[in-house]
C-alpha cells in the first residue's frame, strides 16, 4: 500500500524473511547474484533468499573495483530489478555506508524499501569505502555509525518495513570487543541482524554468535578471503542464522568467460556449449512466461511460437 505524500510500503518478501529469521532451527542460505541473469539462475534452483553483492554490482554495472564508486542510484536500480524478478523471494542487498550522512542514509533506506528489497546492510567504513576483504579499511567513529543505524530505523518507521543488518568492519583495526560493542549498540537501536565482517576463526565465529544471542548473526562466506571457509552446515553448527555467498557467481563467470574469449582470440572459433542452448538460456529468463502473457493479452506476435 502506498500514498504519494506519506508513503507506507509493505512487501510480502519482508514478512517472509522475518518468518525465516524467527525459525531458530534454520539458517538462511543466500547465493550471491549481481544481475538479472545470475539472479534468474539462482531463482531456478529454489533458494529461500537471494543476496545482491555490492562488489558484483560495481563490477558488472561500472566495470570498476569495489572501492566506494557505486552510488545509491547504481545500487538501488540493480536491487529493484533483481527484487522484481520474483517478489516472493526476499532479496538482501548491500547498501554500503548509506552513501552519506543521516539524511542520505534515510533516503537510501526509503529507496530500498520502495524498490522491494527485503533487507539491507549498513557498515561503519568511511563513505569512500573499500571491499571488506581488502586491507587498511578506514572507519567512522562509533557515534557516526550509530547515527547511520538510527537514521535507518527512523526512515523505516516512516516508510515501511525492511530488515536492517548492522555490519561492522572494526574487528581488524579495533579488535573484537570494540567491534561487538558496536553491533550490540546497533541492535539496541533497532537493527535486526548483526554482521561481523572478517571473522578470523571458527572459535571467534562461535563466540560472536553467543555474545549477540538471541539476535541473528550473518556469516559472509568468501573463499580465499580473511574468513575461514565454512559450509552451510558448519556455519549453522557455529550458530549463524544467515549465510551469504557474495562471490558465488563472480569466480565461475570470470573463469569461463576468460577461457572462451581466449579461445576465440587464439583459434578464431568458440567452444560448443556443454549445456545452455540459446533456447534453454532464454527459458531460464522467463521465455515461456513472457510468451504466455503476450498471448493472454491478445497479442499475435508469438502465436506461431518462437
Automatic annotation (TrEMBL):
The keyword Transport does not apply. It comes from the Eukaryota. It catalyses: (2S,3R)-3-hydroxybutane-1,2,3-tricarboxylate = pyruvate + succinate. InterPro entries: ICL/PEPM (IPR039556), Isocitrate_lyase_ph_CS (IPR018523), Pyrv/PenolPyrv_kinase-like_dom (IPR015813), Pyrv_kinase-like_dom_sf (IPR040442). It holds the Pfam family PEP_mutase. One of its GO terms (molecular function) is methylisocitrate lyase activity. Keywords: Pyruvate. CDD domains: ICL_PEPM. This is Carboxyphosphonoenolpyruvate mutase. It comes from Rasamsonia emersonii (strain ATCC 16479 / CBS 393.64 / IMI 116815). The lineage of its organism: Eukaryota, Fungi, Dikarya, Ascomycota, Pezizomycotina.
